[in-house]
Amino acid sequence: MTDTSIESERHRDKDRPDKNPGDKGHRDGTRTERTTFKTILRYDVPASLVVFLVAVPLSLGIALASGAPIVAGLIAAVLGGVIAGAVGGSPKQVSGPAAGLTVVMAETIQQFGWAVTCAIVACAGVLQVLLGLSRIARAALAISPAIVHGMLAGIGVTIVLGQLHVILGGAAQSSAVDNLIELPGQIAGQHDAATVLGVLTIGILLLWGKLPSVVRRIPGPLAAVGLVTVLAVLIGSSAERVQLPGDLLSIGLVPELPDGDWMAFALAVVTIALIASVETLLSAVAVDKLHTGPRANLDRELVGQGVTNMVSGAIGGLPVTGVIVRSSANVAAGARTRASAILHGLWVLLFVVLLAGLIQHIPLAVLAGLLVHVGAKLVNPAHIREVHEHGDLPVYLVTIVGVVAVDLLSGVLIGIGVSLLFMLRRMIWSGIHAERHEDGWRVVIEGALTALSVPRLSKVLGAIPEGGAVKLELVVDYLDHAAFESLAGWQQAYERAGGTVVVDEIGHPWFERGKSGEPTVRKGQESQGMPRWLAPWSEWQVREIGETGLPEQRTASPRVHAPMHQGTEEFQRRTAHLVEPTMRRLADEQRPHTLFIACGDARIVPNLITTSGPGDLFTVRNVGNLVPAEGGSDASVGASIEFAVGVLGVREVVVCGHSSCGAMKALIHGAAEDLPAVGDWLRNAEPTVSRAESATEPVTLDGAVPDAPADRLALYNVLQQLDHLRAYPAVAAAEARGELRLGGMYFDVGAAQVYNLGAGGAFLAAGEGRTGAATAVKRG
């Protein structure tokens, strides 16, 4: 079946009643999937055969690299499929002997012997069951991915260094360091047929992924081991072969407890249990990302792995973990349920029973070549790029060196220690620098300012000459007691010496009352106010620290520049680099969508209330948001309309009125005599007054009539200006062609509420799914 047909069948199955109505899923919220014979036969049986073909050579190779009996790898493969597949909590994960434990197992077998190692594996299984029952499986996910990837890479390097000796006709040394030291001599020595077979195995594995997809349906490990083994048999190679015991199926109780050194025994148990658990859990999480079926129950998976290792250790098998290589092959082959993992274990058992003789034809150098390829793949360039992008490359490298140079547990612990140091550094890091700024100094402090930063803070602040003007910009996530006292003390001393210090805090006001010695300890203790790009100058621009009262009651220090000057500085420093790419695209031409006609009132910010940015609005502002009648004495608004509609091709024209409009009040009460120009301009609004006086039905805001007469007049004014717009030839022609629509808008300043003009002539509140934009208005 092709991948396409499998995927389409998967989508069709979503509509089928596959789930058991009475099955409420696992406790952790995962759902279960109903297993039917048809599903197993159609999907799981083929997938299990694919996984079986991948598992056999890998199991043999891992047993070889661990220094365990070859049959121990096959026992672990069978139990990992049957028991872990049936009991575990990750339905599509396939378990078996893992390359990640080869180094630990080799050291353990060398230290304790095989019989005691089996007892260690069984005890590690008991510990895993206890960890699963305690429901702390997700705690393993707290380990940094850099450590996990570094651990796997260190294991890969260790495997490669050891198995290269086997390929070259020698024997692996007792440690990775010894293997590395002896490797040049091994390479320079004489090589026999084993070397050719090992290198040929590696070559086939490297080239297999580049072959046509039809050929690649055969798993690469199986193909490489099978082809080279057949070649070795045909040419009669004398290379050393795999040795199996004659009584392969006579399984007895293997484990033995040690005669002494119980601390080392316990340490080995904990080490194997922890590494197997972490590898299993991370593999389960990775497998969940590969499919859309039931999610893994990590606690149950840990219990299943523990039960499997108890049995595996008891009958002479290697420790079992979830294996991402087999699991990904399982998912890719279309497995639907846990039956695939179980069946793969049964296939391995049948293979051992019926075809054990074939295994004994496999040269050890072929398995060594397979392991070199597997070990090299554990050093994953994608993982290296990932940890580098997150700034964790040192943690990754230290973990690798620790695993290779010392041992796996020590390497992981060293990696955890370095990771904690990096975490601590990031939590307490603060960037502190001072620079000359016009007639004074600018000091910028970023990050978390804590006691550990005080020495550097004191050094930077102490280098600023006395008697100057200092602008202190605080962009800090946290300010502790020691840093607060240091800043406050320096500020007070600097100002006593004749200087001035202006504090500019971006974000939470940790130091807002620093001069008075009153800290703001927790976020939320003080309102943080609006972001600067939304707030008026008076709410964010710096003032002298000694001032009191509300912002509008304060007077700026003579040293502080005018608000506009400060605003442009703020833009260049914090905003310009953010909008520069957009402005670069708009540099040569503008293509606004909307002509926005608004009042000049300072409280109306068109881009704010329309959530628009550069290039969106062509804005015309005047007193009263008026559109003089076409052909009138004032041509400035008409020129803007003609340019926007005829040249820029805007697709919408919106007239925006607002509450508490001074122009509307002047129309009602009369313009002041000392404002003759205003009086002349407001004659353009006389049709608005006539319209309001002759109206038989009031214009409403969400069904209500505004209380203030000026606000009621502002609504009529919007409608009247839309009528004036339609008298412009350019507007009328574009609207007739369906290329332009006219809309009205009203902004209630006190409520910060936008109203859009609806088709029925009433204004409706924007938001809550009512009207997303100004609505087209029918003529008249």
TrEMBL record:
InterPro entries: Carbonic_anhydrase (IPR001765), Carbonic_anhydrase_CS (IPR015892), Carbonic_anhydrase_sf (IPR036874), SLC26A/SulP_dom (IPR011547), SLC26A/SulP_fam (IPR001902)
Chief place of localization: membrane
SUPFAM superfamilies listed in its UniProt record: beta-carbonic anhydrase, cab
GO CC terms: membrane
Membrane topology value: Multi-pass membrane protein
Xref: Pfam families: Pro_CA, Sulfate_transp
Chemical reaction(s) catalysed: hydrogencarbonate + H(+) = CO2 + H2O
Keywords: Lyase, Membrane, Metal-binding, Transmembrane, Transmembrane helix, Zinc
Main EC class the enzyme belongs to: lyase
Gene Ontology biological-process annotations: carbon utilization; transmembrane transport
Cofactor annotation: Zn(2+)
Location relative to the cell: Membrane
Annotated binding of Zn(2+), by residue: C599, D601, H658, C661
Key word Cell cycle present: no
One GO MF term: zinc ion binding
Region (Disordered): 1-31
EC number: 4.2.1.1
Residue ranges occupied by any SLC26A/SulP transporter domain in the UniProt entry: 41-389
Note describing how the cofactor binds: Binds 1 zinc ion per subunit.
Record carries keyword Transmembrane: yes
Residue intervals passing through the bilayer: 45-64, 71-91, 111-134, 146-168, 188-208, 220-239, 262-287, 346-375, 395-424
Similarity comment: family membership: Belongs to the beta-class carbonic anhydrase family.
Purpose of the protein: Catalyzes the reversible hydration of carbon dioxide to form bicarbonate.
Name of this chain's protein: carbonic anhydrase
Organism: Amycolatopsis antarctica
Lineage: Bacteria, Bacillati, Actinomycetota, Actinomycetes, Pseudonocardiales
